[in-house]
Amino acid sequence: MKQRTRYSFGREVRRPFGEVLAAAGEALQRQGFGILSEIDVQAKLQEKLGIEFPPYRILGACNPRLASQALGAEPDLGTLLPCNVVVYEKTPGMTVVAAMDPVAVLGLVGNPDVEPIAEQVRDLVGRALDEI
User: Fold this and answer.
1) Which residue segments constitute the domains of the chain, with CATH numbers given?
2) What's this model's pTM, rounded to 2 decimal places?
3) How far apart (Å, rounded) are the C-alpha atoms in residues 97 and 132?
4) Helix, strand, or coil here: 108?
């Protein structure tokens, strides 16, 4: 099932968390993205606060060619990079994979040169999520 907010888009997948996490990384790579960072929210909340939390990862995805173009048009855009993709367990066997909507987020910049780049990023990330 697809889901959308004002700032993100994604889908629910009836597959275990670990499978979806691996599939997300592979699908993003096929669309030209590398994973620059991976934050294990579940582990950090346990470590820092002693809180039990379901599996939740934040992947910092970056397409170098498009990032270079965007930074060339708007150097401070780096404050909004990389493109975050989250994978989390909604219930056992049901996993959500979602990404920030670059058109919504980069629209804050107000630079018309960035808009077509944001649309390309949204299209590529959308293709990756559709593969999962």
Assistant:
1) 2-131 (3.30.310.70)
2) 0.94
3) 9
4) helix
Q: Which two tokens stand for residue 37?
A: 């960072």
Q: Are strands 2-4 and 94-100 parallel, antiparallel or unpaired?
A: unpaired
**pLDDT tens digit sequence for 42-60:** 999 999 999 999 999 999 9
**For residues 103 and 111, what is the distance between their CA atoms, to the nearest angstrom?**
12
d(CA 89, CA 10): 13
**Contact status, residue 101 vs residue 3, Cβ threshold 8 Å:** no
Tell me the C-alpha distance between 36 and 46, whole Å. Answer: 23
End-to-end CA distance of the chain: 12
Q: Verify cis geometry, omega within 30 degrees of 0, for the bond prior to 82.
A: yes
* Confidence label for 1 from pLDDT (cuts 50, 70 and 90): confident
In one-letter notation, the amino acid at residue 62 is C
